[in-house]
Amino acid sequence: MSLTLARRLARDRPALVALASLVLIALACFVGPRLTGHPPERIYPDFVRVAPSLAAHPRPDAVRPALTRLAFRMRLTLEDVAQDGDRVRMTLTAPKPIDARSLRLLPRSGLFGEAQVLERSADGRRLVVEAPLRRLTFLLGTDALGRDLLSRCLAAGQVSLLIGLTAALAALLIGVAYGAVSGMAGGTVDALMMRLLDILYALPFVFFVIMLLVFFRAGLWLVLVAVAAVEWLDMARIVRTQTLSLKDRDFVRAASALGAGTVRILVRHIVPNTLGSIIAAATLLVPRVILLESFLSFLGLGVQEPDTSWGVLIAEGARALESAPWMLAAPAGFLVVTLVALNRLGDGLGEALDPRLSAAEAR
CATH fold of 2-34+142-362, please? Predict the structure, then answer.
């Protein structure tokens, strides 16, 4: 079965491209934050809302203003600056003897390395200091606090993919089992199970989340529990409908006549013949969950700092759309590519797992 599925997918080039895109996005999200050179939580106060660029920062005309701000924080006066390649020599003065420990602010700023004192006046009120200049590149720009947006998007992807895949897995496990049992049982049992489903549908989702907040603190795990608790309902209805249409087929009657039990019929005959619809619905469920998480985060009920997600970044970018459009474009780009790839891969898997295609190939 796996070899047949692989051969069918190999003939579907768009599905292969979608699968490769998802693998690359997943690898980038889980490995990339360690390779960008910028920790996702690192703040660069001198580079707030910097536009995307391949050029390294700081620019030559920005070195002196940055040193002036740092000198002010150190309660010193910047008298002179000379830049030689990637090294900066500066002269600092103060009305009192200068404590060399204050120079620790230079490497903490992220713009300079460890400072070295070259000259010191006899009274200690004048220092000549040299420090290496760090080159920083922000490929996707920075946000309103000066954090690298590429690192933030990759770290946010970990949370969004985790929430989407966890909710899809919960929907598959709970929804498939519930829907298959309901459709196979039929009669009064089916009616009671569907009425319970209707009651759960009637509960407002936001009210349900607020009720959870009474007992738990807002955060990632609350989002996982809340989304997984409601997103299996659609899956259950889909599987029930498919089961009702399959249980009167000849192959199911034949299996029952040969002595197969209900559980065996469900596992060996009913569920495999619904895999196409299940996978298609599951791939559509992942993007819906990600969007639902963004809605919760926008209300302050979802992912909380220091964690982030694509939904949180999109909400932040929407508020800064006029002044910094890249703050919205970057996370939205990751989200759109992921959603399109999931949808196309779901179509390809649904076609590859179609039992009618298997019968045609067998003939």
Answer: MetI-like fold (1.10.3720)
